Structure formats: structure tokens, C-alpha cells
Amino acid sequence: MIKREDVYKIGVFNKPHGIHGELSFTFTDDIFDRVEAEYLICLLDGIFVPFFLEEYRFRSDSTALVKLEGVDTAERARMFTNVEVYFPAKHAEDAGPGELTWDFFVGFRVEEVNHGDLGEVTEVDTATINTLFVVDHQGEELLIPAQEEFIQNIDQKHKVITMDLPEGLLALDETEEV
């Protein structure tokens, strides 16, 4: 059984393309093209299900047409409309340093050298020029700059990012006024 911690989201299937079962795929990470991967994982009814790739071709830098094995008609392809697509983290580790995208780090724990465990990365905000880890810290949302100069170590096996953040960046020591 595939677990959420074994995968990370790389995109979503949009709608069928043509009559032979091709799907339009909007992706945030082209890792499926950069490492040897024979399958993608779809989230269907809350269950992660692998589907073998028959073929794919790029339409732009963020969309591709994908043909899954066993999906041969537009009707069958319609079942995948708006289905989230994931990639196995174990294959992403085959990518060399610098080849991973920020989305790979969702689910990692962030530890800070002075403050200890800060929480889990729930998403990565790339909407601005400064990429931010969105971290769930005891139910509160922390925004932490995802800059290489602050990252001391990344343990992919244990899913831990160790950071050394500038003093004052985190307001964790402040006491709330009563």
C-alpha cells in the first residue's frame, strides 16, 4: 500500500485529450521526465494508485499529454479529470542535487539549530521571488525563507531539513500579552 509520506504531488490531470485515452496533465515538477520512472501515482477515492506510463509528450513547460496503460478511450480518461498526480519520493532521490523542486520538501520536518523542531512543511510558497516553506508549528503557520544559505542539512531518508536562521527571524520566544 502506498502511503502519503512515500509520495509528493507533482500536478493534476485536467481533462481527456482526443479519443484514444490521452490526458492533459498540468505539472509543477517534471521529475517524471528527468529520472527513470515507469509510473505515476493518482489519488483516487483517498487511495494512492500507481498507473504505468505508456507515453507522454510535452505541450509547454507546465503541461503534457499523458497516455496511461489501460486507458484507451475518452470515456475511461474522463474518470481521471481533476485527479491529483503524485510521484514516488524514492525515485525522486535518484535525481542529482539541485534537480529536486521545492514541492519535494512538503512533508519534511524543519529543525532549527537554536529552536529545535519547528514543525512540518505543509506547502511551499513560490508565488514571490522569495520561496517560503509554510510550516505548521503547533497549529500556527510559520513562513520560513527557503534559502540555501539558511539550510545546513537535508536528510532525505528521515525527511528532515536542518536550518540555521538569523536571530530575530522567528518570534517563537516572544510571550503574548495578557
UniProtKB/TrEMBL annotation:
Localisation per UniProt entry: Cytoplasm
GO molecular function, one term: ribosome binding
Main localization, broad class: cytoplasm
Function: An accessory protein needed during the final step in the assembly of 30S ribosomal subunit, possibly for assembly of the head region. Essential for efficient processing of 16S rRNA. May be needed both before and after RbfA during the maturation of 16S rRNA. It has affinity for free ribosomal 30S subunits but not for 70S ribosomes.
Assembly mode: Binds ribosomal protein uS19.
HAMAP family with a match to the protein in the record: Ribosome_mat_RimM (MF_00014)
Entry comment, domain topic: The PRC barrel domain binds ribosomal protein uS19.
The name this protein goes by in its record: Ribosome maturation factor RimM
Gene name tied to this protein: rimM
